[in-house]
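Continuing from the previous page of notes. For each protein in this section, the sequence appears first, followed by its structure tokens. Read the first protein now.
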Amino acid sequence: MNLAARARRRRRANQANAAAEANTAPEPNIKESIVLVETLPKAEPAFLRPRHYILAATFGAFVIVPSVLTAIYLAVFASDQYSTTVGFSVRAETSLPVSDLVGSLIGSSSNGARDSDILYEYMRGHEIVSLIDQRLDLKEIYSLPNRDPVFSLHDGATIEDLADYWSKMTLVSFDGNAGLIEAEIRSFRAEDSLNIARAVLELSSQKINELSNIAREDSIRFARETLDVTTEQLRSARTRLTAFRVENQMIDPQAAIQGQMGLLNSLNAQLAEEIITNDLIRQSTTRDTDPRIEQSDRRISIIRNRIEDERSSLGAGVEGSGPPYSEIVSEYEGLVVDREFAEARYLAARANYDAAVTEADRKSRYLVVYSPPTLAETPTHPRRILIFALTTLLLVGVWSLGAMIFYSIKDRR
């Protein structure tokens, strides 16, 4: 048994004796209490144990050495990084009636927010990384500091590795309420950061234009399809009408009938006039062999025969063959009605298409840049003091937690 255990046992025994004497004996005075305290044994001097040396060694190995190595790496090997910030917003230009003002504001905001969401995800995806890599060779830009393997891109990196590294070097933030997108772009040279920021801005503008074109095509696609259908219907109606005219050798059957009806009316008028003249001749002469009567009768007969021929031609059709004029006119009127209906549908579809195109042109989307990229003059990363402090704090916390777990297990044995 060691000395510390003996001292503890001695103190417990003295305390028990003192408590017993206090219960049986009268209250001691102050002098007796001082004498009693002076007779208690004194604690032995403390000294370091092997476990204390082990604890100090683990602290040095797990805290001090890594912290010193981190400080040396940050001071000697870590390369400076220059950052460029670019900020923009997506806007949609619309023009709606005053009665739809509230709806237009809500619709414009929601459309802009959806476009901003798409653009935010696009700036963090593989596509923009691949396009910028083709333009600027990102793998070479990010692997410039050969002595800095921690903060630079390793050799032989794939597109997935480059995309992961891009997410570390390009921090994109998005304010959903205001629709503002801001990107902080870092690299190991200020010129590279500026060029990457300009490429991001250009590709983002192209993506918005692509989205605008897709929305425009979607809005006018139905109108264009309807216009194509009505155009084909109008072309078919006119083709059938032309074929009818060629087959029947007349431009307008109604005009032809009106001409024949005019001829019949004229013949009927001439017949009536000749009959009256014949009656007048008969009343003015007493001779039945008057040559004027014979001539008038012959004229009346000729006119009547002509009228009969014209009426027969109206019933028999063109030149006495083919369908009668009534069927021709009926077919012609049906073709004309089909053409007029097709023309009306075509005009309505054309008006709808023009209105859809005008509306789509008014709803154009574009980028509004509120923070253009500029050339950085001083490096902002890596934040050496912050990294060193966080590293040291993390090491101390892990070491303390390990020491507490170790002593807890040891005390329970």
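Done with the first. The second protein uses the same format. Note its length before scrolling.
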Amino acid sequence: MKATSIRARLLLSLLPLFLLAVAVVGTVTYRYVLHESHALFDYHLEQMALSLRDQGEVPAPPVPPEERQQFDFVVQIWNADGSKVYISQTRSRARLPDRAMLGFADVVTEGERWRVYSLLARGRVIQIGQPYLVRERIAAAAALRSLTPLLVIAPMVALAIWWLVGLALEPVVRVTRELRRRDARRLDPVPDEGLPAEIEPMVRQLNGLLDRLRHAFEAQRAFVADAAHELRTPLAALKLQAGLLGRARDDQARSEALQALRSGIDRATHLIDQLLTLARSEPEAVASPEPADLAAIAREAASELRAIAESQGVRLELRAPGALPLTGEPEALHGLVRNLVDNAIRHTPRGSRVEITLAVDGGEVALTVDDEGPGIPPEDRERVFDRFFSRTSGDRGGSGLGLAIVRAIVERHGGSIALGDSPRGGLRVSVRLPAAGAPAPAQSPARPS
């Protein structure tokens, strides 16, 4: 369906309404002037009759033919005995009836309609008549002349409406021109000064959307640049290890080079998996939330990582109630728990424990992971959420993306995350998410890293 402009809609609604108003006003004015003209003609008939009541014998004066044709009234005067005293000479040959109805009356004589006024004075009947055709012609001409100003002003008002509608919509046209000049490289806010109250909220929301898009594009560019930088090193290492494998002279050297190549492939695969997980976990990613059980998700993630923990001499302990319902994305929540536990296992020394605790606190679900590792100094606790940031101590080949992924998932679910000191001497990661049925707080746009 073709879109109709606001200007066209306003003009299509205002101009017909204006024309209808002009037609109604013109019709009412025309009929009013006609009525007033007939009332004025009746007044003239009455005044002429009254002017003749005091006259004596009124002889019919000779009237030139040219003047006779300009006189549209018929005057008849007769005595009580019926004898004619006076009959005017007019261009019409019609004669009024000899019997008169006092006052105003409509009379048809010889096929012509007349307006007649009769007066009885001093034993004489005075009768004055005027053809309706003459009255209506003069009245119609007067009525049409009264409509002349309206017919002149109406087009001017229509043009004024067209101009005022365009002037009122100029801010919309200005915003449209401004947006038409934009592309993906221009996401700065649209000027909102001097906008009408009806479109100012829309422009502000549009500027908010542009701001979020700008942050998302900046984050995407930073992500691509960081990913390219981080992938360059493992790919170069794989190339070097493949070269060493090709130059191996005996089985032992070949076996060691093959093992190094497999380890490099595993690290590159882990890094790529983390990059894809981070991309899917960004707050701007589109997904449909559904009912989930965080306790069941945590048990599944702990079961998957238990073998890795045992291979590194770390014991996992999970404390969770029967069920912790919330609304979210089960796959993303699984990645959240898995990354937190995997990060704790990587930084916990052999012979120690990693504790996973889940509980309900008010309208939120609380997830806490404690380890016995070296912890993180307070000055670095914000930086560890940056992509590809890895602290040297305790690093066991991590990609530096685990906590960045966790924060992205938490923000996407409207929750919060905090780092602190664990009672076990290491790091405590505390995550709080809205429970099922609790309103999630508004999410802020992701910050570029």
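What the second structure shows: The chain has three domains: 6-163, 184-281, 287-449. The first strand starts at residue 74 and ends at 79. We return to this in next week's lecture.
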